[in-house]
């Protein structure tokens, strides 16, 4: 069988737009929107995401949270390219099952964060297009939040937002939780009830300004008693 391949020619950027014509290119990534937010308290952690899956001006699903329970004390939130989110979630789940079979115990939240860092760094030359945040309880029962860059660098924080509306949420968290550049700010840990109310408020604000965030909020509340999920509606347009 004879195969005919067309070898692409170099583009002459000095040509006029009419001479260049339409350029076809394949991109391995797509952006499916979504926002994830996490907050750590003295004896709890909570992580929330919206439930909209979209691309451009199309909404593919209105009920797709970006949160996945990994252990009884750890939840990961991922958004970005949904294909990479699914791949990364399945890989994390498989690694945790292997760890459980080998050691007969659950991996701690700190260890899960270190493992995710290594997974992302392994793919640094063709990275997963995901915004990743881990929330949970550490070995002392205190809330912890870990944020990651695309190639695995991570740090522990008290709060963090990621995804399409992160530029809207992060300043609100800096003001309401971090007390940035405020004199006489009360730095005492935020209560669980106030944390949940704050998450609802900032997501409502984000849904007004970001078309990729909306439809609903899924909140996972992590305490020593386990993980509880709550849902609240957002605007659907």
From TrEMBL:
GO BP field: proteolysis involved in protein catabolic process
Keyword terms, alphabetized: Cytoplasm, Nucleus, Proteasome
GO CC terms: cytoplasm; nucleus; proteasome core complex
PROSITE patterns hit by this protein: PROTEASOME_BETA_1, PROTEASOME_BETA_2
The keyword Lyase appears for this protein: no
Domain of life of the source: Eukaryota
InterPro entries, per the entry: Ntn_hydrolases_N (IPR029055), Proteasome_bsu_CS (IPR016050), Proteasome_sua/b (IPR001353), Proteasome_suB-type (IPR023333)
Location of this chain's protein in the cell: Cytoplasm; Nucleus
Residue runs in coiled coils: none
Pfam families: Proteasome
Subunit composition and interactions: Component of the proteasome complex.
UniProt record similarity statement: Belongs to the peptidase T1B family.
PANTHER family for this protein: METALLOPROTEASE TLDD, PROTEASOME SUBUNIT BETA TYPE-1
Function recorded in the entry: Component of the proteasome, a multicatalytic proteinase complex which is characterized by its ability to cleave peptides with Arg, Phe, Tyr, Leu, and Glu adjacent to the leaving group at neutral or slightly basic pH. The proteasome has an ATP-dependent proteolytic activity.
Protein name in UniProt: Proteasome subunit beta
